[in-house]
């Protein structure tokens, strides 16, 4: 529907996902020709669960209609928000703009190689646009449709350890993801895993009552307990439970139960009485059973730590009792420590925020062999486009988030979030 629509220098190629509040698009940067993902979070509340995608689409169309102009060919130009100002929003401020909580928490941890990097946040009155790295496939598709892991135990180890490494890093910075599931884990072309969707993430050390939101397959039993339960559970431990279910997914292409609820799921109810049921319903080896059992402890306090899980998984020799996963190479100690123990990018992930400094742009174009556009040409074209955009849109009534006025503001200047949302 939105193919060829453009937000600043990001042209939409296709829709790649939709969720409760937003749509995700594969976009191309018309300056560098690099791929990005653009998540559009619609601000208006949509209560109905049916036709949600259609309603989100209508809201996004409104956004293009409000700010765009036929003359501009479905292009809109929006101000970018300074990412540091989002990171420093207080919990009280985030109460007023809940969708910024997701962005703020992801920004806290996106320096990790296995967390999706956010490059820009563009603000409009109707929607917020998040520009992130783009990944071609999610883990669900890779496991179920492509069966990418059934022959390759080392790949299972690599992907799972990357996930553990990212989650451990988040926990170290007091960010708890709370929605670890294959649809929220993406793979690059070299099968490196990254985590996305911090929509349910929290910094709350303890689970807040009635947190039964998310996918039931991956949810720890304490998250499904009745709201009258007054025990305090560490949020961190419920992420660890989800890791155990993902490990089962990777090796067995299935889930052990629909939900970890004693009366609501007969398999889980059986598992509570006798954990070895896992050996009967899944083709896992004794060795893997031992690892999974140390993770899927009903009492969250008894669950093994993430670093212990990582050590155990790297040493597993066979994942299954039969088939190609019976003989899995041990992970080389150097690979383990280089790839998983020091996982933080040294390069600032916010390259997009600086890239239109002249020197950076020159470097970018110089290094882009596929592009034959020169910097001077680019600046002229870009200035022309954005000047046109401004002329055409200057009569539009702009409420809380005025249009940017020129190329400087559109691509170089970053506004503090407090300036764009004056109520903060
Ligand atoms: N950076 C990305 N690159 C490629 N695809 C992505 C990216 N981010 C998200 N997606 C795709 O879009 C889907 C929806 O994204 P996301 O989970 O962030 O949205 P959401 O609105 O929070 O969804 P939900 O309500 O289901 O949690 C993902 O499952 C994934 O398939």
From TrEMBL:
What EC number(s) has UniProt assigned to this enzyme?
Answer: 2.7.11.1
| Organism superkingdom | Eukaryota
Q: What are the GO MF terms of this UniProt record?
A: ATP binding; protein serine/threonine kinase activity
Q: Which UniProt keywords apply?
A: ATP-binding, Kinase, Nucleotide-binding, Serine/threonine-protein kinase, Transferase
Q: Does the keyword Lyase apply?
A: no
Residues reported to bind ATP: 43
| PANTHER family xrefs | CALCIUM/CALMODULIN-DEPENDENT PROTEIN KINASE KINASE-RELATED, SERINE_THREONINE-PROTEIN KINASE CHK1
Q: What is this protein called?
A: non-specific serine/threonine protein kinase
**Which species is this record about?**
Kazachstania africana (strain ATCC 22294 / BCRC 22015 / CBS 2517 / CECT 1963 / NBRC 1671 / NRRL Y-8276) (Yeast)
